[in-house]
Amino acid sequence: MRTLGITAEYNPFHSGHRFALEELKKRTGADTVLSVMSGNFTQRGEPAFQDKWTRAENAVRGGVDLVLEMPAAYASASSQWFCRAGVKILSGLGCTDVIGFGSESGSVEELLQLAEFMNQREYELHERMAAYRKQGFSYPRAQEQAALDLGVAGGGSLLSQPNNLLAVEYVRQILKLQEDIRPEIATVKRAEGDYLQSASALRKEAKEKDPELYALREDRYFRLIEAEILKMTEEDLDKIASSSDGLGQKMKKEARYCKSLEDLLRRCKSKAYTRTRIQRMLTQCLLGVTAEDMKNELFYARVLAFSERGAKLLKKCRKCENRTIPILTNVNKEAHLYPELARSLAVDAYAADLYNLIAGNDLYENADCVRHPRLIKINE
User: Fold this and answer.
1) Could you tell me the pTM of the whole model?
2) Which stretches of the chain are DSSP H helices?
3) Are 101 and 167 in contact (CB under 8 A)?
């Protein structure tokens, strides 16, 4: 059994994802696919289009054999933390042979060259990025310019493309693993064409079909955030994971005057604060995720859904001698075995409750302590 590991959001799962899965399996010779998926809040700092259980089930029906949830603290974090968590969980299971992802580049060698350079010159890169940040550059733009300054061939142009940026970060994190447990690396060039769907297009189509529903969801989300920001002190806001350069104080100042989420984003956005970064911090405020929570780096494999082949893979992972992280299939019965995970699991459960409030779902039926992983039979 050769296993391909993927970090994804599947927000929602679509034909483009299926195409990438099939291509990566062909290139790597993998016969099973394992995915670490963001939960109810995404890396862009937004409530997911569909809840995590639905997205996990659709992913299994689309070709993934085993879907695990990325802890909420990392799922709504910057690309560095998001990629690090995905790589740590996939490698921590001890049975992931290769980690794959999409990119605009499509070249492992090109991405590997840039990732090695950035790891070797990490301190200089950080210093130059900090200088650009002080000049008002956004984080992605500062990173792009710093790479250009340090002279890596093609570094700036590669980092200007969103999927390349994530791809390079995946490779950087893989290279930081011990060599004896380091999975192989594979990438597939993002394909475009009328026959392939995109997550953003599907979300847009859904919102156009039922604008009142999604407007209501957004308003609920905004009101929850607004209440949280008003409750928090500036000192509390400064402790939030994505808070720096005065963003917390800016949010505190503007929240009282805003009538909508869009209004708050517009008031806080600047050259230094991208829309995505503001959205991310808003979700982190809502979940109470601090910089200290991130540094703890407590990873685990929370099972959401699996196929019959995925059940065999799960059994293999449980028995793997190289496994370094716990596997959770029933939080109610297993959480007490890992007291160090109490804080992170509580954030996951709270994220589920908040999402259900936003989506108008039944709080009990959809609670983390009630829902359990589901075996999906593909012929259902």
Assistant:
1) 0.93
2) 15-28, 52-61, 72-75, 79-92, 108-120, 122-134, 139-149, 155-159, 162-175, 199-209, 211-231, 234-238, 247-255, 261-268, 275-287, 291-295, 308-319, 331-334, 342-359
3) yes
ω into 211 cis (within 30 of 0): no
Could you tell me the fold of the domain covering 3-195+294-375?
Answer: Rossmann fold (3.40.50)
**b or e along 174-211 (b: 16 or more beta carbons within 10 Å of the residue's beta carbon)?**
bbeeeeeeebebbbbebeeeeebbebeebbeeeeeeee
Whether 376 shows a pLDDT value over 60: the answer reads yes
User: pLDDT of 271-297, one tens digit each?
Assistant: 778 899 899 999 999 999 999 999 889
The ranges assigned to domains in the chain are 3-195+294-375, 207-292
Per-residue pLDDT tens digits for 76-128: 999 999 999 999 999 999 999 999 999 999 999 999 998 998 899 888 888 88
Residue with structure tokens 């299939």? 329
pLDDT of residue 142: 84
Which of 38, 27, 34, 107 is CA-nearest to residue 73?
A: 38
CA distance 83 to 175: 12
The strand pair at 66-69 and 184-189 is best described as unpaired
Q: What is the CA radius of gyration of the chain?
A: 20
User: Which amino acid does the sequence have at 261?
Assistant: L
Tokens of 49: 């289009």
